[in-house]
Amino acid sequence: MKKLLALSLCSFVLTLPPITLAAHDGEVHKNLKCTVQTVNDTTLVVKGTDGKTITVALKANTKYLRGTTPIKRGDVKVGERIVVGVSSVKEPYTAVVVRLAETGTIGKQ
Asked: pTM above 0.85?
């Protein structure tokens, strides 16, 4: 009886439509490796490693780091290679954290 109940429950669950879970605020769900094209108070435009241009929204709670050291949005410069942690797996993207390489570490293994 327990096996029949378990089998019935599994069959029911497998017939349900897929559910997309919403991202929680402040959680990184995807990292974008990219180069800064433009940056202002609300938007970061970057070029991904695949050459695609991507627009990322910047919020008041977006964190900025150089290595592990907190920095300001104004420290992000055009042409700099960065990793942007975003709160969704598809566009439109909102930045949770913008990470820059520590000074002097680019190109070192």
From this structure: no
Q: Strand 63-66 and strand 93-100: pairing?
A: parallel
Task: Tell me how far apart the alpha carbons of residues 21 and 70 are, in angstroms, rounded to a whole number.
Answer: 30
Rounded to an integer, the average pLDDT of 90-102 is 92
For residue 41, give its domain range.
Answer: 24-100
User: How does residue 12 score in pLDDT terms, banded at 50, 70 and 90?
Assistant: very low
Residue (of 16, 20, 46, 14) closest to 33 by Cα position: 46
Q: Is residue 1 part of a domain?
A: no
Length of the chain: 109
Q: How many domains does the chain have?
A: 1
